[in-house]
């Protein structure tokens, strides 16, 4: 279980995130949504231990501030919005780098690491791409390779920053389906999402941030209303609910 | 999965290249000594083997007191410059990083010159020069990196190199100033500055070897970490690497080795570019291949460059920096052209 207690992130003067309190149950998928600059990425980066924060983050009763870099990496696998993918690296080499927190600082991979990397490749159906270079992959394949790298880390919590930005609709659904299926293996997911319809269909819970503060939280139907989306995104939308799913449709003004 | 660090064949090829280069380096010179005789003479120095050297006293002296230290020193310096180049490229995520272009060599030059000029003659100067070179080199790399960052993102390829050229120019100017002020030691400094192994002795080897050994061992041990750093600071950190500390360790260690190499050999450019990039083209871009193979191939490369420096205008000698620059500059141009994809 992840608990954030009044977490704030500050860059210089103005806080990018103010007093975020949130509980994420094991196996849940929580999506942070909100307009550009709302603090979604800051929240995720605070969780990953990449930015200093005020407040407390507690994972399974352990204060993350007491954890070293390596221990953090064993808890959280982080996929940034624009992952760095050295084009000449092969998929297999790249995925194996995900084993870093399990390998001594100056050591090399052992058999267990190779097996874990192979499992991650198989899980994301990338075995036939193992020897291909990252530069030769399509956008969807690359995103799968990045997920495989995160999966090879074997951390119980997956942090995804805008996992579908670079993908077309079909590829986006494919990737989100994959992430969802990984939850079946016991993974907890915290993501930021731009696309509200997809966010609502995949996450159990949405947290809407605006100017660094939480303005709404709960199930998709609670958070995604015409009024809230209009108020915080400045967008004109129609929200349609059908068979329990919520669709946010832009309407031309 | 074929994710082994270096395929053994490439390791053997690099080792073979080095051994070949060493034999050529020992064999070539005004006194003709055959490769077979070199091997026999070497074996004669091994106790308990009871091999008799086929060489006479003069040949033995030429081989072991003149050529051998020169060849060994060239190997040490070449391996060091190449492995340091590959480490700088990884740590700064910049394909054009090189001890020379980052101003490290020029800073080491200034430090060494100050030591030669101001140190009390005699007592301990030999040992002081590498230390002074190290201080100058560290100062340069810090200023270069800071300057490169102010110009833009830390990984902006051009900014770092421009900063390095700026720092190198300044350090070289300061070095020339100090040198001209002290005409009495001008010749010492000049001989050193041009770069070369003409006056190499086993003493130089003894000065450089410990630094080169420590530095290259530490860098080779970091080969996998350098691959992790190639994913960028955020991802390396989220994989459990303390990025700032790792970067510091690698830069300090690479600079230490470079300074020692510069202190005994002068300024030799481009080795840190040519060798690692050739390995990237031939073998793999993974630092697990690039770092150890650069060490071995760089050693062989500089031994051969030194052979060329000795023989091209024989009996006169060409400064070895001229030889490496002659091959390195066009190579650099090629890397510059392709570096867009080599990030």
Query: Whole-number radius of gyration of chain B?
Result: 20 Å
Percentage of β-strand residues of chain B: under 5%
Strand content of chain A: 25-35%
Termini of chain A, distance in Å?
43 Å
Shape category of chain A: globular
Largest sheet of chain B: none
Low-confidence spans of chain B: 1-5
Distance between the termini of chain B: 25 Å
Number of domains of chain A: 1
The CATH architecture category of chain A equals 3-Layer(aba) Sandwich
Oligomeric category:
heterodimer
Class inferred from helices and paired strands of chain B: mainly alpha
Mean model confidence by pLDDT of chain B: 85
Question: Largest sheet of chain A, if any?
Answer: 6 strands, mixed
Summarize it.
The complex is a heterodimer of chains A (253) and B (343). With 253 residues, chain A is an alpha/beta fold.
Summarize the topology.
The complex is a heterodimer of chains A (253) and B (343).
Chain A: E1 2-10, E2 15-24, E3 29-33, H1 40-47, E4 54-59, E5 62-63, H2 69-75, E6 76-79, H3 91-97, H4 111-123, H5 139-152, E7 157-161, H6 169-183, E8 188-192, H7 196-202, E9 205-210, E10 213-218, H8 220-223, H9 226-233, E11 237-242, E12 245-250
Parallel strand pairs in A: 3-8, 3-9, 6-7, 7-8
Antiparallel strand pairs in A: 1-2, 1-4, 4-5, 9-10, 11-12
Chain B: H1 8-27, H2 35-44, H3 57-91, H4 104-118, H5 125-150, H6 157-181, H7 186-193, H8 202-221, H9 223-229, H10 233-238, H11 243-265, H12 271-282, H13 287-311, H14 320-338
Helix pairs in contact in B: 1-3, 1-13, 3-8, 3-11, 3-12, 3-13, 4-5, 4-6, 4-11, 5-6, 5-11, 8-11, 9-13, 12-13, 12-14, 13-14
Walkthrough of the structure:
The complex is a heterodimer of chains A (253) and B (343). Chain A has 253 residues and is an alpha/beta fold. Chain A has one domain: Rossmann fold (3-Layer(aba) Sandwich). Chain A is built from nine helices and twelve strands. In chain A, helix 4 packs antiparallel against helix 5 (139-152) and helix 5 runs parallel beside helix 6. The model of chain A has no long low-confidence stretch (mean pLDDT 92). Chain B has one domain: ABC transporter involved in vitamin B12 uptake, BtuC (Orthogonal Bundle), CATH 1.10.3470. Helices cover 73% and strands 0% of the residues of chain B. Chain B is built from 14 helices and no strands. Mean pLDDT of chain B is 85; it is low at 1-5. The A-B interface holds A 45, 48-50, 69-74, 76-78, 80, 83-90, 92-93, 96-98, 100-101, 103, 105-109, 114, 117-118, 121, 130-131, 135, 153 and B 1-3, 5, 221-222, 224-225, 227-228, 230-232, 234-235, 237-242, 280, 284-286, 341-343.
């Amino acid at each position: 279980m992840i608990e954030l207690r009044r977490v704030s992130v500050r860059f210089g003067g103005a806080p990018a995130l103010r007093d975020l309190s949130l509980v994420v149950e094991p196996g849940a998928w929580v999506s942070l949504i909100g307009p550009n600059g709302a603090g979604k990425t800051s929240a995720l980066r605070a969780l990953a231990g990449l930015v200093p924060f005020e407040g407390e983050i507690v994972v399974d009763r352990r204060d993350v501030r007491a954890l070293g870099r390596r221990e953090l990496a064993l808890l959280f696998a982080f996929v940034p919005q624009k992952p760095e993918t050295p084009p000449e690296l092969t998929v297999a080499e790249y995925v194996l780098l995900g084993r870093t927190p399990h390998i001594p600082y100056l050591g090399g991979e052992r058999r267990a690491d190779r097996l874990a990397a192979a499992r991650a490749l198989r899980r994301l159906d990338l075995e036939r791409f193992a020897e291909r270079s990252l530069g030769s992959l399509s956008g969807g394949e690359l995103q799968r390779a990045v997920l495989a790298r995160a999966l090879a880390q074997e951390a119980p919590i997956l942090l995804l920053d805008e996992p579908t930005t670079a993908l077309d609709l079909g590829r986006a659904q494919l990737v989100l389906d994959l992430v969802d299926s990984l939850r079946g293996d016991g993974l907890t997911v915290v993501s930021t999402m731009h696309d509200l319809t997809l966010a609502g269909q995949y996450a159990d819970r949405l947290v809407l941030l605006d100017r660094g503060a939480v303005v709404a939280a709960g199930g998709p139907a609670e958070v995604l209303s015409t009024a809230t989306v209009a108020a915080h995104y400045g967008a004109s939308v129609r929200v349609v609910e059908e068979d329990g799913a919520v669709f946010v449709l832009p309407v031309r003004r | 999965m074929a994710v082994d660090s270096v395929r053994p064949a490439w390791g053997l090829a690099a080792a073979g290249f080095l051994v070949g280069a060493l034999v050529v380096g020992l064999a070539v010179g005004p006194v003709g000594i055959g490769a077979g005789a070199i091997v026999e003479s070497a074996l004669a120095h091994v106790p308990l083997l009871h091999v008799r050297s086929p060489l006479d006293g003069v040949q033995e002296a030429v081989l072991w007191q003149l050529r051998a230290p020169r060849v060994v020193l060239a190997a040490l310096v070449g391996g060091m410059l190449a492995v340091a180049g590959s480490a700088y490229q990884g740590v700064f995520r910049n394909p054009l990083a090189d001890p020379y272009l980052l101003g490290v060599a020029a800073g080491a030059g200034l430090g060494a010159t100050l030591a030669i000029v101001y140190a009390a003659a005699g007592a301990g100067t030999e040992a002081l020069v590498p230390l002074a070179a190290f201080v100058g080199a560290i100062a340069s790399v810090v200023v270069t990196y800071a300057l490169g960052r102010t110009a833009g993102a830390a990984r902006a390829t051009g900014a770092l190199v421009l900063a390095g050229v700026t720092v190198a120019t300044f350090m070289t100017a300061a070095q020339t100033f100090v040198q001209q002020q002290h005409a009495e030691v001008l010749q010492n400094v000049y001989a050193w500055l041009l770069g070369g192994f003409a006056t190499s002795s086993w003493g130089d080897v003894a000065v450089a070897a410990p630094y080169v050994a420590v530095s290259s061992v530490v860098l080779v041990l970091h080969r996998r970490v350098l691959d992790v750093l190639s994913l960028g600071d955020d991802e390396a950190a989220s994989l459990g690497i303390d990025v700032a500390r790792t970067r510091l360790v690698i830069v300090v260690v690479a600079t230490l080795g470079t300074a020692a190499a510069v202190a005994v050999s002068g300024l030799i450019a481009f080795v840190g570019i040519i060798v690692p990039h050739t390995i990237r083209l031939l073998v793999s871009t993974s630092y697990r291949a690039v770092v150890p193979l650069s060490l071995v191939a760089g050693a062989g490369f500089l031994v051969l460059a030194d052979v060329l420096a000795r023989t091209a205008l024989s009996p006169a000698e060409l400064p070895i920096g001229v030889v490496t620059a002659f091959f390195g500059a066009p190579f650099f141009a090629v890397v510059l052209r392709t570096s867009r994809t080599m990030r």
